[in-house]
Fold this sequence. Notes:
alpha/beta
Amino acid sequence: MTARATVIQLNNARRSYEVGDSQVYALNGVDWSVAAGSSWAILGASGSGKSTLLNILGCLDRLTSGDYVLLDQNVQDLDDDQLSDLRLKNFGFIFQSFNLINQLTVVENIEMPLYYAGIEPDIARNRARELAARVGLESRLAHRPSELSGGQQQRVAIARALANDPPVLLADEPTGNLDSTTGSQILELLHELSAQGKTLITVTHDREIARQMDAQLYLSDGRVVSREGACD
């Protein structure tokens, strides 16, 4: 079997914060490699560093020290504008709380990343409609989030995450606010996207969800304590 290209590489990754006179490490020497098209679950107790790691991966935060290489580019070398551009092109974010804009319709929410990317309005609208259909919401284009179920809102969030066709999807407890049946449907959709070549990284506390991923990364006190599965 041919080894897949590496999309993410962390080397001795550290993120620390000043708390009074002390330095507290949210990440403390993480080494991790993620192959393109693989799916990973990040697990650990509260305060283990899961959210910090996801923020670092999504270029929402920076390492204090160490290296983060994304698609052969060292993220540490980039300024804020370059980082923003990198984030827009390479990541789709899916949150537990959906993070939709209540004043906008389904199609307008999906269009948002395309707007920031400078895509022409007609092209953006057509792309948003195609993505809405892809997640089964073609009949809900004019609805606002308050008029949708939780599962439908998460589908909008997934469509929005796909707007710029990013290679990596980052999901933070994507089924946390959903009932078990709806959550299973959302997971099935995410697995379909992974099977189509998207790299999927999911923060979860649910070991059953984690077992459905190709591999699992377990954190404790900012360190990797174990990893399971193979993603070569």
